[in-house]
């Protein structure tokens, strides 16, 4: 027997009866490196049932330095290396130690050098420089001493391993934090934090969930909803579901307990990581293959802080995104998002159509209802559009009372798009019939310039607004030319004022009972110096939008005053002159003072005049409107509501308005011969006015049938082409003389 073999005899021992073979703790890996097979057998037998720190041992055997290196490359988590100094050559063990530490960069495994041949002691430099845990003669290593040496080495390995794991874990946390802080989406964020938590625990195929708690106050209580924002592995089917829909009841309970306790919970086969920031809470649940040690727990606790901060960043980014791209009132995409989608979809698809849908008379409704109820109406319209129109259409709120629509041309049928307005909208148990006007324009796929397309659709919508009886229009090149014309009109308005190109025409108003002239309506006409006539429906909206209508209105009133003075001097002024007042004029602070000044300068009494103000104008700022009308009454003007029945006046306000006459709108009068609805509305207006002691006049009378119907309703006065079209003062005087002559003949 060799000296090396003989020295192993002392290691031969029997198994202790006190050891517990049923303990299933993970074993410590011990690499035995020796060229003597007997050493391997004796070492394994002597330590076969030994437990160190309550874990068994697992032996890996190598018979040369080269084989040992191969084992170290294949096996992970080797705790201790029992390394023979003398193998292939005298210092091969020492060379291997050097290789392990410097070349292989393995700092954690503890090395115990053993030699059976005195005189082959390791060099002091090797022990100092390559982190040798112990050096023993094999003859010294009795079983007890070997156990002691291994225990010391394992403890040392455990500490080094914790440090190493902590370093690796912190690097993982830093990497994860840098990554998740750049994530902009809840779902991607949730998937990332599952991935990196699994990486901290060395789990390759994670099965995990991320649950977010949403809280809101409602119905007097604190309501919470928990939903799954991330899910991997066997839990994938629960993504975006409510926590109540998670099929694994135990998992659901663990997550709820984690959030309620506001702490991370470690279980034998799972972990529930609690995170929060800025009052928002969540839980990351992950399956584990066993209990989590203290190092991993500490790393997870550190990572939970980063998860919470990143979660808050996601919420902040989401909120900013909501404000930037979504309308907060309607919860629909806003104008910015809509234009981005027009560009994107227009460049990707052909045959797309864009629509601009504007609510009719919304400003009047908003002022009549109050802004709070007006907001409720916008929300109701948005909800009905979203629920009624096909899901493939993009719906956005692009203005106060304007919605954008985008989709394939075959789905953009105007009748279908306007159908949601067939039924009234109910606000606080009160139904409101609301109309809308639609403009449509094609999206050119080759050059989808969103702003241009939107401008075209908006142009079509406005054209439809100004066309009686039309609720929608498609954009055409003619509209572009009309826009150019509008631009020309805008440019020429002020010079036209200076050149005195605005003339006043007069249309008679006749008493239906006596058939006598009771008044005339002053109507402005633009006749350019070259004889070109600009239609009122072309220039008045432009003058209104630019504010020039204020100066035009003053000029019309001054010319009407001069005409009144002239007719008074001729002895023919036994009627009132009705003057139209625009919205811009009515809201001008100088409106009443300017009227008084013109009356003084032209030396005419206010009693000769009636001011016609549209219903929608009166419904703006009702309380201040009432005061202004009372002031006009005090000056001596009669007040008439023009276009009555087309707006949304509150009857309560109507009763309070100091008015003398209602004008039944031509849109009803022109249809009374064949439209039951028009007859009914006209009758209701006249009947209501008569009961309130307010006079009525119907405009747009063109036929005998219309005249008879209006007269039978009890309407006092009428005007329209049936009597005369609007004419200049010279033509009116001719008409007046002829009309008076006919009346005298009739009386005679």
Can you describe this structure?
About 45% of the residues lie in helices and about 20% in strands. It has about 750 residues and is of the alpha/beta class. The strands form five sheets. It has an eight-stranded mixed β-barrel with strand order 19-20-22-23-24-25-26-27, surrounded by five helices. Strands 2-3-1-4-5-6 form a six-stranded mixed beta sheet, with helices on both faces. Strands 8-7-11-10-9 form a five-stranded antiparallel beta sheet, with helices on both faces. A hairpin with a 2-residue loop joins strand 9 (about 265) and strand 10. Helix 3 runs parallel beside helix 4, helix 6 packs antiparallel against helix 7 (about 185-200) and helix 11 packs across helix 12. It is rod-shaped. Mean pLDDT is about 85; it is low at about 1-25 and about 215-220.
Keywords:
748 residues, alpha/beta, eight-stranded mixed barrel, six-stranded mixed sheet, 26 helices, 27 strands, 46% helix, rod-shaped, disordered N terminus
List strands and helices in order, with pairings.
Layout: H1 3-6, E1 28-33, H2 37-46, E2 51-52, E3 55-62, H3 65-74, E4 78-84, H4 92-103, E5 110-115, H5 124-129, E6 132-137, H6 143-180, H7 186-200, E7 208-218, E8 221-231, H8 249-261, E9 265-267, E10 270-277, E11 280-287, H9 294-325, H10 335-348, E12 352-359, H11 362-369, H12 371-388, E13 394-397, E14 402-408, H13 414-418, E15 425-427, E16 430-432, E17 436-443, H14 450-465, E18 472-474, H15 477-498, E19 502-511, E20 517-527, E21 533-534, H16 536-546, H17 549-570, E22 576-581, H18 583-586, H19 591-602, E23 609-614, H20 615-618, H21 622-635, E24 638-644, H22 651-656, E25 661-664, H23 666-669, H24 676-692, E26 695-699, H25 704-713, E27 717-719, H26 729-747
Parallel strand pairs: 1-3, 1-4, 4-5, 5-6, 17-18, 20-22, 22-23, 23-24, 24-25, 25-26, 26-27
Antiparallel strand pairs: 2-3, 7-8, 7-11, 9-10, 10-11, 12-14, 12-17, 13-14, 15-16, 19-20, 19-27, 20-21
